[in-house]
Amino acid sequence: MGGLGDPPEGPPDGASGGGEEEYRSVVFDESFVRAARLQEFSAQERIADHAPAVRRRPPMRRGLSRQALILVLLIAVAFGTAIYMGVRHPYQAPAAKPPEPLRMTVIPLAPQGAVPGTADTGLLYARSPADQFRIGADGITMPATRRTAHFSDSQVVTALTTAKDYLVESALDPDVLTGGATRPVRILLDPQQLDQFDRSFDHPTADGRHAPTGWLVRFDPSHAQLADPQIRVQGTLQAAETDADTLEVTADHTFVYALRPTGSEDGAKASLFTVRRELHFRFDRDDLRMRQAELVGSYVQAGPLACAEDATSHLRPLLAGQTAKAGGPAGTDPFATGGATALCGSLSASAQPRV
What is the pLDDT of residues 275-334, one digit of tens each? Predict the structure, then answer.
């Protein structure tokens, strides 16, 4: 039987079973009501104003809220500012200065008489000014450290430690002293100094820039060998800030070696050989991070040596009982440009052991 209002033959095929059935699935919640485009006036409004039964409501605003729009705008401004400052930053970090070429001076010290010697190396040291020196790396003492205006305590310690490592490898390593090794020293240098370092060993020249003995201490292996591995050392390390991006370390040390002729027996006479090295290191922030050094100055005095001997590539010490040959230092040609002036000093008798 059809519902109220349906034709006698019943509702048409496919039609819903009445108005209630047609809208049963529709939920008239609050959001639905608010979204309606038409709004019915109240009974009081219709009686008072004789207005139409309904009125049209203004369309609801859809989209982002004001707070969301402000947040999106702030994110866009911050992102744009970051891109701009990355491209045109007014405070770009200064580019690191290229290292200066190492300037070096090696001065032979000639003895005033025969070189004293004895088979007892302990007696040699005991009767020389090196008697109170410490042994090996213990003689390279670290100073009290404190931060500078632009470098922290740890950065100052890194600079001093790297300088000490260079001194140990370049003046105390037996493979460097008599074996011809260079790598232990090379790996401690700033990469931009390696060309000068390599050229010094490939083509040694007494020009104040390319002498291997300016970089490290090494003896002619065909002439002398260590008689005692316990090398005596004494000196100082000092660190100072030169500008906001540079630390400098000055190392001033005296190394005393006991030597005897190459191939001689253990009972052969030994003699002492003294090397005074004043080295100037420079460190930028990249050097500190990589634990490498820029060696910019090397001043070396070494003896006993003959003034006429070429001390550019190797040191060839005068050994026990030997004397310096007559004659002054190696000749200097004032017409040859680029060469360093030959220098030679006299080794004081008080610097030699009393045997």
Answer: 999 999 999 999 999 999 999 999 999 999 999 889 999 999 999 999 987 555 555 554
SS3 293: strand
CB atoms within 10 A of CB 70: 11
pTM summary value: 0.72
Q: Could you identify the residue written with the tokens 């008599």?
A: 178
Distances (CA, A) of 259 to 76, 167, 170, 329: 75, 20, 17, 23
8 Å CB contact between 62 and 35: no
HSE-CB at 206 with a 13 A cutoff on CA atoms is: 17
Put residue 242 in one of left, alpha, beta given phi > 0 → left and psi -120 to 50 → alpha: alpha
**In 3-state terms, what secondary structure has residue 224?**
strand
Closest CA to 304 of 239, 259, 269: 259
DSSP 57: P
Q: CA 83, CA 96: separation in Å to the nearest integer?
A: 25
Q: Which pLDDT score is estimated for 87? A: 53
3-state secondary structure of 81: helix
